[in-house]
């Protein structure tokens, strides 16, 4: 009997019998799903109930599929919860892609810079081997390629 009360099994059974598949305290729900809308991310500024309503309505879940209690949000069908979770996963996937893209850009730029330095060093070394070679600055477009776009 003590374990049943301690684990909250009575409350769990009562909620399941009422037809709700998912329930969480407002804070937990907001911290998990605030990423779904720009207004609620990273923190919802305002009443928690309004924030939860805003998040759920922005996803397109009907009012009959969810209810707000005194301190918890209740969702009736697992499909509604799966929709929230899927949209959340897509957001995180987008964030991961942005981070990967930036890392690859930075990594490839350093590789390109190293290759460019290596190529410049080869040219300098060849010039040093040939005694009559003169170092000259690049003075511009020697072949007038800017004036001839076909080439």
UniProtKB/TrEMBL annotation:
GO molecular function, one term: actin filament binding
Record key words, sorted: Actin-binding, ATP-binding, Motor protein, Myosin, Nucleotide-binding
Residues covered by the Myosin motor domain: 1-89
One cellular component (GO) term of this entry: myosin complex
GO BP terms: actin filament organization; endocytosis
Nucleotide-binding as UniProt keyword: yes
One Pfam assignment: Myosin_head
Highest rank taxon of the organism: Eukaryota
Similarity comment: Belongs to the TRAFAC class myosin-kinesin ATPase superfamily. Myosin family.
Protein name stated in the entry: Unconventional myosin-If (Trinotate prediction)
Organism annotation: Myxobolus squamalis (Myxosporean)
């Amino acid at each position: 009997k003590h374990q049943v009360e301690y684990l909250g099994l009575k409350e769990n059974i009562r909620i399941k019998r009422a037809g709700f598949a998912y329930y969480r305290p407002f804070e937990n729900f907001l911290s998990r799903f605030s990423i779904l809308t720009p207004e609620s991310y990273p923190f919802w500024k305002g009443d928690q109930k309004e924030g939860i309503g805003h998040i759920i309505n922005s996803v397109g879940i009907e009012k009959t599929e969810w209810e707000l209690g005194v301190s918890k949000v209740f969702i009736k069908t697992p499909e509604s919860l799966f929709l929230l979770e899927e949209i959340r996963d897509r957001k995180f996937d987008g964030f991961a892609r942005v981070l990967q893209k930036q890392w690859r850009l930075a990594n490839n730029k350093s590789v390109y810079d190293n290759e460019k330095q290596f190529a410049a060093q080869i040219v300098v070394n060849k010039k040093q081997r040939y005694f009559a070679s003169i170092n000259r600055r690049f003075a511009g477009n020697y072949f007038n390629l800017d004036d001839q776009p076909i080439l």
